[in-house]
Amino acid sequence: MRIARLSPIALACALLSSNAFSATPSFLPPEEMVKETLDAFPGVLAAEANIQSAQSEATRLRKGAHEATLSGSYISRSIDGLGAYDEYDMTVSRGVRLPGKARLDKLSGSLGVDVAENQAEDARHEAALILKDAWLSWLSAVEIAAIDAEGAQSFKSAFIAVEKRRNVKAASDMEVAMARAEYEQAEARAAMSAAEAASARAIIERTFPELSMPAAPLNLPAPEPLLNSDELEALTLERSHELQIYRKEAERLDAVAKRARLDRFADPTVGVRGFSERGGEETGIGVVFSVPFGSGARRATAARDRSTAEASRYSAIRFEREFKARTQANILAADGAFTAWRAASAASASSEEAVSKMRRGFSLGAKSLAELLLAEQRHLDIKRTEAESRFAAHLAHLQVLIDAHEIWIVHHHDDEGEEDASG
Fold first, then answer.
1. Can you tell me the distance from the alpha carbon of 45 to that of 150, in angstroms, rounded to the nearest whole number?
2. Per the domain annotation, does 176 fall within a domain?
3. pTM of the predicted model, to two decimals?
4. In this structure, what CATH number is given to the domain that contains residue 241?
5. How many domains, in total, are found in the chain?
6. What would the pLDDT profile of 305-338 be if each residue is shown by its tens digit?
């Protein structure tokens, strides 16, 4: 599948018409409940707290590190024959950022906020994926447990039938032992599956305590094929907060590198000094300034920050390529999972028909116990495979929808720092 290349008009149409494939499936929790659950997820709250930290850092950078400094001295001077004099001086000074530095400080601070905001949205996205995996694992485990319980019941029926035959000398003790062993093994598997279903439910309840769990889940319905895959691929790339994190961080580090380059020339300190000497006989006021001479350390810092920015830029390019590949792979996986389920579903229907005939044949004495037990075991395995492939198809489909922000994640259009670049 090719990477989708939509024109701006086509992409806008896709954004506006995306509700065609954004309806939340009925077997998932209600949308509003999911929103509240994600809002309360610790990872999301931590990321949102980091936004406040980034905003404070942006304020610090905007205001700058220079502060007004008040310095002074008082001296009592005594001169033989002339007496004692009070003398003092006072200086108020402040560092001044050279042209261009304040703009870059403001830009890097603003980009830092952009990074933090995208990290918060990505944390919500990750929480949604965790919830998706946990919820579908529970639904799948419950259905597998039901299949295994039904299988155990089938083996129990076979065991009871064989016991009745033995009572009339139509079955041997060995056949009864075989039937009992299969039944007990099926009972053990059903018990394990029930425990796994209970464990899957407990994981959701402990991981997402705000989520109201239904008494019993709905069965996973037949999956649907993934439609509009090109549009979903384009939306995923357009809306990805992971991509924006890498891009904005590269832009921020570029601004930091440019700032370090300007900082090879140190900021001057300018102030006003007033003094009084000989008891006030001499007074004055004037301007003072100082300029540090730059050293090799400043050049090294600028070179280091430029290399860091270059590394970040290449990391963003690498991640974008990997993300596009992963997005395409997820869509192909969803298509493949649906195809696999369709084959498993057909196999399950055929197996249902075959095992029904085998049961009738056994009841009529036309089929042996070994044939029946083998058919029951194969049918149980085929039903499990169908349920597992149905779970995998839904899981892959929902992965694509959540990545495209079509369910559970609200997409906000933003200007991506255009104003910051001009500040």
1. 44
2. yes
3. 0.82
4. 1.20.1600.10
5. 1
6. 999 999 999 999 999 999 999 999 999 999 999 9
Domain range enclosing 345: 34-422
Instruction: Tell me, yes or no, whether 2 lies in a domain.
Output: no
Tokens of 372: 């029946």
pLDDT value at residue 8: 44
Tokens 């090879």 label which residue?
Answer: 264
* Ramachandran category for residue 227: left, alpha or beta (phi over 0 → left; psi -120 to 50 → alpha): beta
For residue 8, being part of any structural domain is answered with no
Q: Is residue 148 part of a domain?
A: yes
C-alpha–C-alpha distance, residues 181 and 242, integer Å: 53
- Asked if residues 97 and 64 have their Cβ atoms less than 8 Å apart, the reply is yes
